[in-house]
């Protein structure tokens, strides 16, 4: 049931509203200081394509990523071959720290020497959480929230089981997220570690990381932030906020490509106190001596385990380079305008459509995506995909509009939501 | 000291010998049923380049990898975007098992449903070894060897520490490797797991995996094989040999590219008995329900933790496709001819050069690379790199000649070893 029994007849207000929003979008696009970045992305090559609204899940590829993958295959891999690991100005051996530092400088507010790129988000989260526990012996509780991204919950459940820890769950409001007061009520002298997301994957709620870090530290616990849904869209100040450890993904707003390697951060003061469990040759001091006995490399390098995923890092560097050039503050400004426009359009829809905004209305607490909800949105999302509008669906009833500032125009938002309104008005099954 | 004080004067035998070997190489190349595969690789674009002899460390890129990376960026990533995870004939969500099965069919001797591609070799080894221990509760010993690849040793040291296990070391002869008799003497009723390499990373020794699996099972232990230095060069029959778990890398003879994701195998009968520790959303049953509580996916999928590294898997598929087409038995035949030629050339060198063959002379026990040794080979290797001959150096005194059958001609071997002989005769520092 698409329209909840009301408003299934022709909706004459639509043309008028869209015209108004189209004019507003045109003005915003004309004045957009980041408009030129739209040309930096590989164009979508599909007849009838309307707009991509899922940059919060899989960012679009940059033209530079395409070019640099080709250059890698012909040059560093195909010609320099094994020498590329150790020789030249940009040896692959150093990429974990180099690309980590590039991300840190572009959008983490972190000084160099605290971030590496390696593994998947899940594996890095496992390593970081396990590492954190080694710095809090005698404490047996991990604090997390019921609406954290699934892999975070699953990883921590596994760690709790194997390390004899208890999980203490904060009951998060799925339309918002976790408040610092809830963390304050949850932590205590048994708490070893607090693990929460910066931006909630469903609602887009921005948690107050400095306050949560302070509250965690007040109880003697460490704080690990999941930045997957904020990095590259929302400014982060890891050093200033006192975040102890962080993990994030590079395939959303950083454009690293499907399954691109993740980044991990351990603040400098903590690096000597923690030990991650997957002792690999690439995190060892002097790896090419290949000698007996594991001795962790100095600093953040010890977070690395296996051979750095160079091919996977090429698009990451290209995407991070764009973010650095555009500037995270300018990106955030456009992000707020984009999500505000989306909410205004949804608010203009007749009540009969039955669509709710399930994201914070306060722009200061809202990240780079807006979730709207309706009971049949699984089917509506499928219908939108058929019509060249590509958001994503998140159970039970949410469509996420992920508005990546560098690759999304204001006109995209208007066109896409016009199609969405039409689909809902006519029924998802209509042609 | 390059020549150990003898034979530093002009070596008149060289021209004559090389002529003989050049003729033999020309005959072998002319009759090589795999010769056409040389054209499948991206050409080295460097003036003065002579030959690449490090396919055992980083395989050369295939032309198909280059083309398919470009197609991915324009098509599945750039145009189909997020839909590629779930839609179409080849959804990314299924790539871990699909590419795993492709590797299994091409060169592991493993039926479908037992292999996935994910993570780095190091991380997968960690997960597999931890998983194996869950199936042998009450046993507290892991058997490994002193000359196993460093990351294997470091990972197992870490696991022993965190799981309260003891390590029992087999003292491997670095010019050969581990014999089944040594394993028989090491295992007992405390042994939970035996972890050994199929082909030794230094000597190239082929361990007798069926015998080692049988000996391990005789003691009630599980056997985990590291296939990094054999897969794609030496036939493997995991199912027939009774190997319980295996891990291997795809960036050597499979051409997956620097840091490409690894593969892991768990034999079907064991899959329900083991549990790997990194519980991620991509290894959960019904991942997109994103519900509470981790429930492992059925079968080998539960070995997956994070988002599959699609960009990194594209060159893997291309490389594995070549291996499948060429056939692992034909590859092995050429591999034996290549390493035999290399040994014959080194054997023809004057004793005064002081070069030793540190690999098995029995071709049946020798993998895809030959290690030769001399005290100053670190410097000689550097001099070879300067002259367009690219093997690799392994401490303390070995140069590995890695002869990837699909991308190496017999003439390559002759030309490269001519340069090596010249360098050693004149001194590594000579122009």
From TrEMBL, chains A, B:
Its EC number is 3.7.1.3. GO terms for molecular function: kynureninase activity; pyridoxal phosphate binding; transaminase activity. It is an enzyme of class 3 (hydrolase). Keywords: Aminotransferase, Hydrolase, Pyridine nucleotide biosynthesis, Pyridoxal phosphate, Transferase. It catalyses: 3-hydroxy-L-kynurenine + H2O = 3-hydroxyanthranilate + L-alanine + H(+); L-kynurenine + H2O = anthranilate + L-alanine + H(+). Belongs to the DegT/DnrJ/EryC1 family. Homodimer. This is Kynureninase. It comes from Flexivirga aerilata.
């Amino acid at each position: 049931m698409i329209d909840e029994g009301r408003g299934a007849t022709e909706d004459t207000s639509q043309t008028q509203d869209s015209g108004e929003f189209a004019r507003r979008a045109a003005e915003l696009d004309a004045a957009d200081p980041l408009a030129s970045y739209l040309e930096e992305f590989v164009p979508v090559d599909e007849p009838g394509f309307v707009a991509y609204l899922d940059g919060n899940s899989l960012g679009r590829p940059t033209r530079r990523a395409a070019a640099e993958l080709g250059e890698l295959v012909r040059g560093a891999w195909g010609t320099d071959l094994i020498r590329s690991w150790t020789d030249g100005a940009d040896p692959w051996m150093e990429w974990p720290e180099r690309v980590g530092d590039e991300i840190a400088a572009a959008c983490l507010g972190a000084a160099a020497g605290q971030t590496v790129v390696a593994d998947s988000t899940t594996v890095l989260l496992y390593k970081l959480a396990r590492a954190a526990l080694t710095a809090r012996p005698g404490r047996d509780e991990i604090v997390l929230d019921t609406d954290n991204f699934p892999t975070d919950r699953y990883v921590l459940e596994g760690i709790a089981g194997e390390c004899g820890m208890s999980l203490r769950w904060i009951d998060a409001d799925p339309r918002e997220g976790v408040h610092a007061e809830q963390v304050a009520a949850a932590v205590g002298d048994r708490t070893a570690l607090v693990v929460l997301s910066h931006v909630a994957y469903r609602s887009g709620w921005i948690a107050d990381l400095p306050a949560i870090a302070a509250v965690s530290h007040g109880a003697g616990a460490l704080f690990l932030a999941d930045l997957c849904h904020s990095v590259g869209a929302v400014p982060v100040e890891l050093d200033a906020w006192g975040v102890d450890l962080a993990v994030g993904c590079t395939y959303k707003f950083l454009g690293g490509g499907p399954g691109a390697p993740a980044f991990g951060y351990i603040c400098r003061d903590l690096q000597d106190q923690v030990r991650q469990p997957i002792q690999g040759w690439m995190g060892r001091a002097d790896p090419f001596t290949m000698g007996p006995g594991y001795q962790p490399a100095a600093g953040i390098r010890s977070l690395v385990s296996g051979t750095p995923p160079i091919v996977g890092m090429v698009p990451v560097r290209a995407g991070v380079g764009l973010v650095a050039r555009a500037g995270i503050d300018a990106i955030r400004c456009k992000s707020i305008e984009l999500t505000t426009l989306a909410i205004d359009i949804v608010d203009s829809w007749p009540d009969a459509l039955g669509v709710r905004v399930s994201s914070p209305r306060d722009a200061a607490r809202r990240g780079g995506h807006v979730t709207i909800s309706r009971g049949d949105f699984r089917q509506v999302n499928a219908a939108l995909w058929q019509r060249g509008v590509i958001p994503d669906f998140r159970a039970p009833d949410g469509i996420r509009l992920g508005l990546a500032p560098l690759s999304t125009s204001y006109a995209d938002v208007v066109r896409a939501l016009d199609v969405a309104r039409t689909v809902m008005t006519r029924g998802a099954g209509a042609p």
